[in-house]
Amino acid sequence: MLTQAPRGTRDVLPTESYRWQYLEARMRTAAAEAGFREVRTPVFEHTELFARGVGDTTDIVQKEMYTFKDKGDRSITLKPEGTAGAVRAFLESNLYAEPLPCKMYYLSAPIFRYEAPQAGRLREHHQFGMECFGAKDATADAELILLAYRLLSGLGVSNLSVNINSIGCPNCRPKYNDALRAYLREHLDDLCEDCKNRYERNPLRVLDCKQAKCQAVVVQAPILLDYLCDECREHFVELQSCLQAMNIPYQVNHKIVRGLDYYTKTVFELITKTENGNLTVCGGGRYDHLVEQLGGPDIPAVGFGMGLERVLVLLDGEGVVIPKPELYDVFVTYMGEHRLDAFRLVQSLREAGLKADMDHCSRSLKAQFKYANKTGSPVTATIGDEEAASGTVKLRNMTSREEVTVPVAEAAETIRNMLK
Ligand code: ATP
Ligand code: MG
């Protein structure tokens, strides 16, 4: 128990964290190119924020949240998604008073959902998310889809399919909901228990139920796009024009409605085919009324969330090799009497910007070389009696085995040349 992480969580170990850092660097660059700046919000918020923001008929709020009372008897919830916290921060700091749009992203934000752990599904996962507040044009939706698409394909994810849909707005969706309810009423017996409840309170949810029997029912269901009002239809047409203009292959998918209540107009998912079926790696959409619903002014917004664990799984599946940085540039080996010289040398090499280290375990010189070899250090710098006496250090290229002895003061520069 003590040495076992809770179910559905995963460590990122020192040997693999470079993979995360690589992804994160690419994500930061992509975001910066489009004028998005990072936001960091707390890991927990008041439960009320998610109940109101995400919607209390969603799976997330009904079944998946990590909610607890703190010592002050407040109900607290660990973030089950990234958008609500970003909206809360946007409102709390009056960012809407600045010139809009306000573009922000969050990176490796931990997200908590009490789900059945399985491949690609964790109880704590991490998301890269982007949110754009104050832009109602479809170009804003398109730029996010494009950014996510280019980011993922640039990383090496192939087989990406961009699925888009429009789920309308409070003007047109109620009419669709009525039509959908009327259809579902005829098939209530064939729905799962959850969907029997969804049918009344939020029939749209039935469309993205993962149960096979519900999916079978909705094949024949009325299609939302047929019910869109003029404004929503035009928005959807313009979104597609943007994607076409950029040659982004996409498909309109009526079944994409997203698991959160706050969406309006555009919803989208980037899906890949894997050995174990389809995997959604990124999902998002427009949420034109969430800001207002959470007590702010009437400000439209659009965003997405992308799961980092899933991106990594996909890259592994595709055999993409993420460049692994060397642990060290140089490893300093020394004879026991000269430990202080070695220590001094290591610090000066580090000051010169090299990744350097030495033995801290009283190993023999021979064992130090063995260890240096194991770390993969391309160069060793040795201080024996002769070197200590003459203020020099013996550098060895661990691949070619070539050796050169130089004054300590020239060590850093020589090593740098050897590394070229
Ligand atoms: P799914 O349909 O797979 O349950 P979702 O619609 O609940 O996904 P979102 O809320 O849109 O997912 O979250 C955005 C992204 O976060 C997903 O596309 C996925 O990459 C990732 N994600 C969501 N839930 C998990 C999870 N439990 N474990 C790992 N990654 C997840
Ligand atoms: Mg889910």
What does this structure look like?
With 420 residues, the protein is an alpha+beta fold. Strands 1-5-6-11-10-9-7-8 form an 8-stranded mixed sheet. The protein has 3 domains: 17-172 and 228-317, 2-Layer Sandwich (BirA Bifunctional Protein, domain 2); 174-212, no CATH class; 330-419, Rossmann fold (3-Layer(aba) Sandwich), CATH 3.40.50.800. Helix 5 packs parallel to helix 10. It has helices spanning 17-33, 47-53, 59-64, 83-92, 138-155, 173-185, 193-201, 204-207, 212-218, 230-245, 290-293, 308-317, 339-351, 365-375, 385-390, 411-419, and strands spanning 37-38, 44-46, 67-69, 75-78, 102-112, 124-133, 160-166, 250-252, 264-274, 277-286, 301-307, 330-334, 356-358, 379-383, 392-397, 403-407. A hairpin with a 5-residue loop joins strand 15 (392-397) and strand 16 (403-407). It is elongated, with a radius of gyration of 28 Å. It has 16 helices and 16 strands. It binds adenosine-5'-triphosphate and magnesium ion (MG). Residues 81, 113, 115, 120-122, 125, 127, 259, 280-283, 305-307, 309-310 line the site of adenosine-5'-triphosphate. Adenosine-5'-triphosphate (ATP) binds at residues 81, 113, 115, 120-122, 125, 127, 259, 280-283, 305-307, 309-310.
Short description:
This protein is of the alpha+beta class.
CATH H level, superfamily name of the largest domain: Bira Bifunctional Protein, Domain 2
CATH-defined architecture of the largest domain = 2-Layer Sandwich
Identify the bound ligands.
adenosine-5'-triphosphate, magnesium ion
* Radius of gyration of CA atoms, rounded to a whole number: 28 Å
Count of DSSP-assigned helices:
16
Largest sheet: 8 strands, mixed
Q: Kindly state the number of beta strands.
A: 16
Q: Supply the CATH class of the largest domain.
A: Alpha Beta
Question: Based on CA inertia axes, which overall geometry fits?
Answer: elongated
Proportion of residues in helical segments: 25-40%
How big a fraction of the residues is strand? 15-25%
User: What is the count of structural domains?
Assistant: 3
Annotated CATH topology of the largest domain: BirA Bifunctional Protein, domain 2
Strand order of the largest sheet: 1-5-6-11-10-9-7-8
Could you tell me the mean pLDDT? 95
Unreliable sequence segments: none
